[in-house]
Amino acid sequence: MEIINQKDMNEFDVVNETLCDYLGDVPDTERKRDDNAPKLSSRFLRDNVNAEQRRLIVGYIIRLGVHCYYPSHVIYQTIKLFNVAIDRILVKTDDIQLMALACLWIALKRAGSSEKLPSATVILQLAKDLYINQKKHLLMYEKKIFEAVKFNIQFADPFSLLSYYILNINEDSQHKVITSNNIVHLYFCGSYMIDLSMLDEELCDVSVHVIAMAATELALCLVYSSDIINESWCSVWRRKQLLTEWEERVMISTKQSMLLNATQHWKFSSNVIYKKYMRSRNGRITILVHDKLRNIIC
């Protein structure tokens, strides 16, 4: 997917334009990307950056994405790369944010054409006055990140999978479940859940398929009544996606984490996401989500 510049274009339209030609290939493509992506070590968040520092940076990067109109899939790639970077590279506390900006710059370079890319100076300005005249340090962290991952900077995309699952639900069901006028609401509710998943360090190494399926199920429960979408329906649909028994167990805790972070919207990082989905570009579904959270049964 390429970087979106249109400020008035919602992300679902862009995702669908990108996926329409190869929708059926999405599951296999993303599974291969997930398998080949850099992995976290057992020492993640134990020797360097801690969980609270990471969560604050995740909120900061998501807020930058909203402010600069960077698409959600680029922000997700940034966070995934940042996770690996802080796992493999020792970084001073004062430079954690700078390394996050280096990850964002790398993700933007990979996603877009050169004429759309912000310069090093513009990237540094995203931290206001914190890193004035530190272009060399930004480039240093960029180099360290590339070396740490051996130039493997591609991660699977849960937003593509979210679109795939939503658009294929009716094909997996005996009866038509999804109406066309609800597809956009479903996408943004699921997107909201994927953003929330980035806040939880326990979900950093969970399969992207599990993340996307958990988001899809929660979106269905938020948009549809329990008469249509219930635990029995979810179980049948889930089995059709060929999840392993272990993945099904992980999916339960994944959904619980997403919901917990959603209810804690007064906290900085959760509040960034809460405000993000107040915007028309992101579906304006925040009120819908929080009105229906108490009624979720899946």
Top keywords for this entry?
298 residues; Cyclin A, domain 1; 2 domains; globular; disordered N terminus; Cyclin_N; Cyclin-like_sf
Q: Mind explaining what this structure looks like?
A:
This protein has 298 residues and is mainly alpha-helical. It has two domains: 45-149, Cyclin A, domain 1, CATH 1.10.472.10; 158-297, Cyclin A, domain 1. Helices cover 61% and strands 0% of the residues. The protein is built from 14 helices and no strands. It is globular. It starts with 10 loop residues before the first helix and ends in a 6-residue tail after the last helix. Residues 1-6 have low confidence and may be disordered.
Low-pLDDT ranges: 1-6
* Major beta sheet summary: none
Tell the overall outline.
globular
| Overall CATH architecture of the largest domain | Orthogonal Bundle
Supply the CATH superfamily name of the largest domain: Cyclin-like
What is the structure about, briefly put?
The protein is mostly helical and 298 residues long.
Q: Could you give the topology of this structure?
A:
Layout: H1 11-19, H2 26-36, H3 51-68, H4 72-88, H5 96-111, H6 120-125, H7 135-149, H8 158-172, H9 183-197, H10 208-223, H11 231-240, H12 245-263, H13 268-276, H14 286-292
